[in-house]
């Protein structure tokens, strides 16, 4: 089912003709006539070399834009939140998109919406997608709710790389001598010389060893360098998957013929619960992300000392996997106003907000930036102020609070809707 559309005379945005009764969200989204993303980028002041196309309707925005536009004054910063919602949600994204369309397509203001990328778990669960609803949606809706540009997959790969390296390190430390471990970690080059890598220098500094020549290490220093001595009972880094697969929440790993003696209990979390996702939302540059990834604690050793991804030697590789995920994705609303999609943590897991980078770029490109805090005001908005704003230094100019009749009823002890059933909420 389509709808008639006309180009807005001021900004090229799409003015939609409404239908009665209102079609389903899917029908509305699939009937939309999306504008070429390069057209939207051009109206924002982005140049061809500022974006990387992912098809005709979405593109990555390069971080170099921030440096080029650093002299530009910042626009108005607006956060959308809600009172504590019901399990089905109260329409924060719909209000966020609707407000942006009103400012941009109807009032002719230069506006950008900043949203989180949905997780695949809720998309195929009760709540459905996170593209908004009705005539206030992000399009292409299917791409927004599914793989998009692969940021969540990059987090999955980086997270599980660290998990694989962790278990492999335990196995090798158990089977190899100090000298054999040293030979594998710091082999000689074709001239017969050994060299420290950047992450090795960092580990040596934390150990209090300041030597430039690997051959000069004493046997005790070599032992401390090569052995992380991870305690299997104190490992905190599980694996992740972007699906709500309840049968993988608790698993036994190490069942192969060579790994059986290292078998242990572990499990899978959903990808957006990864610390890497929280880092992506709070980081301010590639260099900053590299430092933050290196600080991730994966477990404790037998002396109860923290072991990090830097100690494992995988922080650099994780950064490489996350390189493209660092760039926000440019999309559009049904009325053709621009949207920056980036990061995706839930507020009950991390801070529940889209990325600092997306907001910073948007504030330099638009007069108004409308962003959304996850969950409710007592969670996502609190973390927006206490974590995100303190990290970025940005201060919002206004907050929009969504309060629905359904949520107010639940707050007052009325019936609570859960998956199509009515449950009486005890107070």
What does this structure look like?
The longest helix has 25 residues, at 151-175. The relative contact order is 0.20. This protein has 17 helices and 21 strands. It folds into two domains: 5-147 and 327-424, P-loop containing nucleotide triphosphate hydrolases (Rossmann fold), CATH 3.40.50.300; 152-321, 2-Layer Sandwich (Domain 2, N(10)-formyltetrahydrofolate synthetase), CATH 3.30.1510.10. By secondary structure, the chain is α/β, with parallel strands linked by helices. Helix 7 runs antiparallel to helix 14, helix 8 (178-185) packs across helix 10 (219-226) and helix 12 (286-294) crosses helix 14 (315-321). Strands 3, 4, 5, 6, 7, 8, 16, 17, 18 and 19 form a ten-stranded mixed beta sheet that branches. A three-stranded antiparallel beta sheet has the order 9-14-15. Residues 1-10 and 419-427 have low confidence and may be disordered.
């Amino acid at each position: 089912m389509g709808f008639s559309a006309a180009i807005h005379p001021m900004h090229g945005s799409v003015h939609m003709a409404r239908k009665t009764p209102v079609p389903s969200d899917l029908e509305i989204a699939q009937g939309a006539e999306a504008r070429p993303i390069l057209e939207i980028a051009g109206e924002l002041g982005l140049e061809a070399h500022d974006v990387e196309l992912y098809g005709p309707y979405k593109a990555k925005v390069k971080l170099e834009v921030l440096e080029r536009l650093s002299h530009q004054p910042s626009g108005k910063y607006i956060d959308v939140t809600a009172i504590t919602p019901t399990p089905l949600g109260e329409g924060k994204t719909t209000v966020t998109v609707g407000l942006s369309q009103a400012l941009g397509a109807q009032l002719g203001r230069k506006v950008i919406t900043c949203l989180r990328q949905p997780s695949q778990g809720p998309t195929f669960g009760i709540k459905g997608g996170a593209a908004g609803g009705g005539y206030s949606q992000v399009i292409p809706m299917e791409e927004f709710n599914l793989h998009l540009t692969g940021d969540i997959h990059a987090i999955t790969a980086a997270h599980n790389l660290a998990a694989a390296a962790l278990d492999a390190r335990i196995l090798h430390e158990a089977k190899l001598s100090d000298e054999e471990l040293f030979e594998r970690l710091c082999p000689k080059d074709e001239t017969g010389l050994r060299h420290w890598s950047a992450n090795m220098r960092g580990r040596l500094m934390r150990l209090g060893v300041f030597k430039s020549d690997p051959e000069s290490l004493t046997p005790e220093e070599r032992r401390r360098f090569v052995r992380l001595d991870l305690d299997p009972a104190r490992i905190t880094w599980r694996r992740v998957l972007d699906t709500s697969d309840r049968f993988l929440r608790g698993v036994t790993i190490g069942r192969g013929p060579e790994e059986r003696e290292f078998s242990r209990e572990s499990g899978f979390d959903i990808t957006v619960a990864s610390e890497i996702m929280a880092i992506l939302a709070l980081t301010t540059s590639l260099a900053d992300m590299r430092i933050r990834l290196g600080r991730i604690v994966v477990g404790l050793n037998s002396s109860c000392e923290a072991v990090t991804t830097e100690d494992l030697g995988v922080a650099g590789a994780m950064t490489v996997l996350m390189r493209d995920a660092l760039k926000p994705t440019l999309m559009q609303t049904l009325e053709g106003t621009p949207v920056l999609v980036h990061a995706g943590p839930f507020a009950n897991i991390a801070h529940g907000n889209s990325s600092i980078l997306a907001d910073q770029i948007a504030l330099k490109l638009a007069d108004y930036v409308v962003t959304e805090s996850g969950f409710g005001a007592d969670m996502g908005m609190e973390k927006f102020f206490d974590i995100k704003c303190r990290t970025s230094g940005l201060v919002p100019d206004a907050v929009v609070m969504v309060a629905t009749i359904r949520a107010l009823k639940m707050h007052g002890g009325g019936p609570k809707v859960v998956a199509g059933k009515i449950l009486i909420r005890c107070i």
